[in-house]
């Protein structure tokens, strides 16, 4: 009977092998001196930076330095110019409208449509992403503003008290933007961009679709001409609906008629823009046309004094001076700001990836954290509220023929004609808000397909929206 023989050998990694038998240059690790020398060599190698490596790192973190020198002027300038002007015109009424969702003056929506855009152009990787005011983020920020700075029972719009009230509100909204930007920068430092891979498309669609209902309900009072307080907290959607239904007898018929006319114009033209987007060189700028016509009518007929129609009011000229946000509110806004940050980042990265796949380039999630973090942080000192990528304007930007981030330069607005926007009816802004949510409501067409694919994915995202109120 033969005896069995077993051979046992140590398992070596590369580092353990070098420690035991030495490296190729003959040095061994039996002495602590040799180990220290190699450790110093490794540290020197990792900490050293050549000129080429510095340039590569700079181009990686500031993408504009990579694509701008290779810009094809003759091929791209026309498309970028047309796309920039188209989206820039749209951002004027949309920025003002979404400022109402944020519970701040319309002028701050115009600022938020400018400063974050320029910064994202420098640091962002999404060539077809349109950044600025976004309905969902604006609505969530508005809830925070309403909780911390509620409307006083008696407020004279022409008094210094009203100016102080507006300053407090934009101070809180800017603080949310600053804290959101700082959170994104911390996430960038920790390289947490990979978290975007766990945000499935059904979850993003479910959240934005549910938020569309909240935005629509919140705008009903403006469309009906009702002066009602804004409800926040649990079941705010149903509280707002109940308040609107209770005050229906007090509807301002002039504002209701104006809202119906605006909807009758906006909805069909937007449908035409969507159906014939491949044939139209640029979409019909129905929003800015509506703004111009409504303002001219309000001026010619004195609607604000004759029928008590709510108007936008005074809009200061020029750009704002740098101002410190209300950082003392950080403890009160921290929880809501985390939610706002993740929603804004999820929507921004999702949109960027969709158009990147379509046009054959790549998106870097960690760099997107840096871009949006810098955008929100810096713009918060210029009285801006949180910004992110936007659904409607991104689609228009791509369909209008934009190629690169250069088209973002075209979105420059400096309010010089105060009288024109002074008489702009608030009901028209509410109609623009509601019609801009068209794409979010159309997402419900995906429900039958999602039910067939996975009933778990069908139920889970919509169930998660219950706590949103």
From TrEMBL:
<feature type="domain" description="SLC26A/SulP transporter">
    <location>
        <begin position="78"/>
        <end position="459"/>
    </location>
</feature>
<feature type="transmembrane region" description="Helical">
    <location>
        <begin position="419"/>
        <end position="441"/>
    </location>
</feature>
<feature type="transmembrane region" description="Helical">
    <location>
        <begin position="338"/>
        <end position="356"/>
    </location>
</feature>
<feature type="transmembrane region" description="Helical">
    <location>
        <begin position="253"/>
        <end position="272"/>
    </location>
</feature>
<dbReference type="Pfam" id="PF00916">
    <property type="entry name" value="Sulfate_transp"/>
</dbReference>
<dbReference type="InterPro" id="IPR011547">
    <property type="entry name" value="SLC26A/SulP_dom"/>
</dbReference>
<dbReference type="InterPro" id="IPR001902">
    <property type="entry name" value="SLC26A/SulP_fam"/>
</dbReference>
<dbReference type="GO" id="GO:0055085">
    <property type="term" value="P:transmembrane transport"/>
</dbReference>
<feature type="transmembrane region" description="Helical">
    <location>
        <begin position="284"/>
        <end position="302"/>
    </location>
</feature>
<dbReference type="GO" id="GO:0016020">
    <property type="term" value="C:membrane"/>
</dbReference>
<keyword id="KW-0472">Membrane</keyword>
<keyword id="KW-0812">Transmembrane</keyword>
<feature type="transmembrane region" description="Helical">
    <location>
        <begin position="98"/>
        <end position="123"/>
    </location>
</feature>
<keyword id="KW-1133">Transmembrane helix</keyword>
<protein>
    <submittedName>
        <fullName>Solute carrier family 26 member 10-like</fullName>
    </submittedName>
</protein>
<feature type="transmembrane region" description="Helical">
    <location>
        <begin position="170"/>
        <end position="190"/>
    </location>
</feature>
């Amino acid at each position: 009977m033969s005896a069995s023989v077993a051979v046992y050998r140590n398992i070596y990694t590369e580092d353990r092998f070098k420690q035991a038998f030495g490296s190729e240059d003959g040095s061994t690790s039996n002495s602590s001196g040799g180990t220290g020398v190699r450790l110093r060599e490794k540290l020197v190698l990792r900490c050293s930076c050549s000129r080429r490596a510095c340039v590569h790192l700079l181009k990686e973190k500031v993408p504009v330095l990579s694509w701008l020198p290779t810009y094809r002027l003759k091929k791209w300038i026309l498309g970028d110019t047309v796309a920039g002007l188209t989206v820039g015109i749209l951002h004027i009424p949309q920025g003002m409208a979404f400022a109402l969702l944020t519970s701040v003056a319309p002028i701050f929506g115009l600022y938020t449509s400018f400063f974050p855009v320029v910064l994202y152009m420098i640091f962002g990787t999404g060539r077809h992403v349109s950044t600025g005011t976004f309905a969902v983020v604006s609505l969530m920020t508005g809830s925070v503003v309403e909780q911390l700075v509620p409307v006083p029972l008696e407020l004279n719009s022409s008094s210094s008290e009203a100016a102080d009230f507006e300053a407090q509100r934009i101070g809180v909204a800017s603080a949310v933007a600053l804290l959101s930007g700082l959170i994104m920068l911390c996430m960038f430092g920790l390289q947490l961009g990979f978290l975007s891979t766990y945000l499935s498309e059904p979850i993003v669609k479910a959240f934005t679709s549910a938020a569309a209902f909240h935005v629509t309900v919140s705008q009903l009072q403006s469309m009906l001409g009702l002066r009602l307080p804004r409800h926040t907290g649990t079941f705010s959607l149903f509280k707002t609906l109940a308040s609107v239904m209770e005050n229906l007898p007090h509807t301002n018929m002039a504002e209701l008629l104006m809202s119906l006319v605006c909807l009758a114009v906006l909805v069909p033209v937007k449908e035409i823009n969507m159906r014939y987007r491949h044939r139209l060189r640029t979409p019909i700028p129905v929003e800015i046309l509506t703004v111009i016509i409504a303002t001219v009518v309000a001026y010619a007929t004195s609607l604000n004094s004759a029928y008590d129609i709510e108007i936008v009011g005074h809009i200061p000229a020029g750009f704002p001076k740098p101002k410190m946000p209300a950082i003392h509110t950080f403890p009160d806004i921290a929880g809501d700001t985390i939610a706002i940050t993740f929603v804004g980042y999820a929507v921004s990265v999702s949109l960027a990836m969709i158009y990147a796949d379509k046009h054959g380039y790549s998106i870097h999630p960690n760099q997107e954290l840096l871009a949006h973090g810098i955008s929100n942080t810096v713009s918060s000192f210029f009285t801006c509220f949180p910004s992110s990528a936007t659904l409607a304007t991104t689609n228009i930007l791509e369909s209008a023929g934009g190629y690169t981030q250069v088209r973002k330069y075209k979105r420059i607005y400096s309010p010089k004609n105060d009288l024109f926007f002074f008489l702009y009816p608030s009901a028209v802004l509410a109609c623009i808000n509601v019609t801009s949510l068209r794409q979010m409501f159309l997402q419900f067409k995906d429900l039958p397909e999602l039910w067939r694919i996975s009933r778990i994915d069908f139920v889970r995202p919509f169930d998660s929206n219950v706590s949103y109120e």
